[in-house]
Prior knowledge:
Elements: E1 9-12, H1 19-27, E2 31-36, H2 39-49, E3 56-60, H3 66-72, E4 78-84, H4 89-93, H5 118-124, H6 127-138, H7 143-156, H8 162-172, H9 184-195, H10 197-211, E5 212-222, H11 225-238, E6 261-263, H12 273-278, E7 286-292
Parallel strand pairs: 1-2, 1-4, 2-3, 4-5
Antiparallel strand pairs: 5-7, 6-7
Amino acid sequence: MLAPRAGGVYLDGTFGGGGYARAILDSASCSLFAIDRDPAAVQRAHEFAKDYPNRFTICEGRISNLSSLLDACGASELDGAVFDLGVSSYQIDDPSRGFSFRVDGPLNMQMGSSGLDAAQIVNFCTESELADILFKYGDEKAARKIAKVIIERRKTQKFETTSDLAGVIRSVVRPDKSGIDPATRSFQALRIAVNEELSDIEAALVQAADLLAPGGRLVVVSFHSLEDRIVKQFFAAETGRAPGASRHNPAGMLRQTKPRFSLVTKAAVGPDDAEMRANPRARSAKMRVMERLGERLAA
Ligand SMILES: C[S@@+](CC[C@H](N)C(=O)[O-])C[C@H]1O[C@@H](n2cnc3c(N)ncnc32)[C@H](O)[C@@H]1O
């Protein structure tokens, strides 16, 4: 979908383990700038760079700063950009990062190395702030109940570990028929709040769209409805199909009146059965693609 071409300049906004980056660099003799806010991912990228001399540059930072990160590297225009949103398998599978309720770890959940961690939110937010986070970012119907029990418990003992928090959540939320762990939605909510994920996505889409040259594609893979809603609405606005105002319309994103892009995929594309079997974590992925309008100047 990104369709890299020789001589083109691309952005992988979410380097992670470098799977996308390698696929892009192997598919055409192009150059690639990559971003990740996670110092461990950046470390991996420095190793990765040795395989692609003079074609690959890693920038440590947040995608909400992508314009200035790319500017500092001398990249002023892109022939394509891709974002594979959310946490990486490296992050989920490392108990010391505190993303998982399945294995015990410190209540951290930071993708980067600055800002609040999950323990600070859980131990110091007010009851209504906590309930709002769980409801808004986790779609958790029992948000108020969970916030209440957290506040009660932390009066005697602060939360330090993922399994402690998951245990307290499970004590008030019964599993439903889906078989999904009752702590899942709360953990997703805390992770999104800790990393300010949604506002970063909004800012990144706006900046990437501005940097794309005619013919350049923006490819975004999201993993839950909050992410996908932002992508869908942004794509609608940029392709001249802006939806009417709604409480979900992120302020400042829907500013286009004249379309600058056309949709490449009419609807979101999900993984096929074979991919889901090979990579069960892809099951909730949704990919959306649009292309910048206009004539590409000859290279
Ligand atoms: C799903 S993984 C990407 C996996 C990658 N496509 C691969 O093939 O290995 C997402 C990565 O993006 C990073 N990330 C997520 N949100 C970010 C943000 N707002 N700014 C910078 N990096 C971010 C995470 O640290 C993580 O390493």
